[in-house]
Amino acid sequence: MARIAFILLTHKDPEGIIAQAERLTATGDYVAIHFDARAKPAHYAMLREALDGNPNVTFAKKRIKCGWGAWSLVAATLEAVRAAEQDFPRATHFYMLSGDCMQIKSAEYAHRFLDAEEVDYIESFDFHSSGWIKTGMKEDRLIYRHWFNERTQPKRFYFTYEMQKRFNLAREVPSDLQMMIGSQWWCLRRRTIEWVLDFIKDRPDVMRFFRTTWIPDETFFQTIVRHLVPENEIRTRTLTFLMFTDYGMPANFYNDHYDLLLSQDYLFARKISPEATELKDRLGALWHEEGKDFAISNEGRELHRFLTARGRIGRRFAPRFWEAEATLGRERTLILVICKKWHVAKRLLAELRKRSHVPALDYVFNEMGPLPDLGGIETNQEKRNRHRRALMRMLFDYHKADRMVLCVDPASLPVIKDFVSDRCQTRLLEIECHFSDDYLAGHAQRVGLAGENTPPHVLEKVLPTIRADLAHESEQIRDAEFENYALMREGGDLEDNSRALTHALDIPSDMAQELAELDYIFRD
Question: What pTM did the predictor assign?
C-alpha cells in the first residue's frame, strides 16, 4: 500500500501545521517540514516541541530564507526531500504541499489512487511552445542570470538583467536538457526522488544553471523528472486542485466550497482561506473517514470561470476576487501613517525599514510608485483605488507578512475609513506638520491651484484658504474618533512623540525614541 511522505513548505500558522501533521501521520503517512528561516523563532520552537516526539515527522536539517521566484524555494524543497528520503525508508511517494493546502479526499482514497498506477504526477510542459507562461518574462528567465530577488531587491534585479541584455551576455541552456515548466505541486515516486537526488550530485553544471534562473520552482523538478523518467510513467498533471482569479492570483476556498472540492479529481486543494475554519474542520475529519465514496464531477474550474465572468453577490462556489478578498483578514494589522507632507512620512518609513522587517509602503493610493507585478491591479491609480482592499491583501501575501505600514494623505479620508472598517486591526499615526507660506505655495502648484507664473498677490489671497483646508482635513480625521489613533507633532514633546510611535507602530520604546529624535525627518 502507498505510504506518502508529505513535503510541507510553510512559514506561518504553527498551530495549523501541527494539526495538519498530526492528521496526516495518524493514518501511517509521513511529514517532512521546512519552516522558513525568516519566520518567527518562537513559531519554529512551537513546532519542534509539539512534533519532535512524533516518529512520522521530520524537519529539514537546514532552514532556508525563502523568497518568491528565487532559488531558495527549490533549495528549501530539496532540504525537506532529503530529510524525508533519509528518515522514512518505507515512504513510497513524496507529495509537495504548502501550509495553505488541505486534503479533499480521505487517506483511504488517496492511497488507493496512488496504488492504481506506477507513475509520477507532475506538470511538465514544453517551456517554449506550451504557452504555460501567460505574461511577463519567458525565455529571459533562463538565458540570463538572476542573482537578486525581484521582490526584495528590484533595483539590483533589473539593473543586472538590463546590463546582461545590453552587453549580449546570454548563456546556453544545458544542451542535454529539454526545458519544461509547470506547477510546483507534484507527487513523485520514491524511485524518482532517488534518481533526482543522484542526478543533482552528478550534475553540478545543472545546479549552477538553475540557481540563477528566475522562478526555478516552476522548471527545476519539471525538467529533471522529464529527463530521467520514461514519458509513459509521467502523468502531466498535479494532484492539488487550485484555481486562479481574474488577476492571476490563486483563488481562496471558503466554508461553502466543501461539496465542490470533494467532487474534483484531486487529492488536495490550495488555497484554503484562513477564515474558513468550518471548512478546515470538515476537511480535517475527512482524511480519517473509511468507506467514503466520492462522486467526481470535476466541474470546478469551468464553474469558477462561468461565475466570475458574470459577477454576483455572495461567496458560493466562486466569487470574484475583489468580493472574496474584500477583507485583509482578522489576523493582520495595517498601520496607516497619515501625513500631508509626503516627504516627512516617507523619511519616517525609510528609517523604520532600517530598523524593522515590517513592510512599509509609501503613498501607493496617491502616487504611482513602484509595486510588484500583481496581475494588473497595480498598473494605474483607478485600479488601485477601486480594488484597494484586494490590492492590500495581495501585498500582504506578496510580503508574507501579517503586519504592514502604509502612508496615506489626510485628504484620502474614504481610504482611511475603508481600512478602519475592515476586519483587520487598523492603527493610525497622524503626523501634524507646520506649513510655511513657501510650502503652501509649492502645494498650490502641485495640486493645480497655481502655476509657476501666478502673481504673488494672487497667491497671498489663496494661501489662507489652503491653510484652512489642510486644517479641515486633519479635523475630519480627529472628529471621526478612530480607535487606535495616535498623534505625532512636529516640534512636539519628545516623550509624547515617542509614545505615539510606540503605540501606533507597535515597536519597542527604544526604537520609537530613536525615530522621535530624528530632526531631519521634518525638514522641508
Answer: 0.62
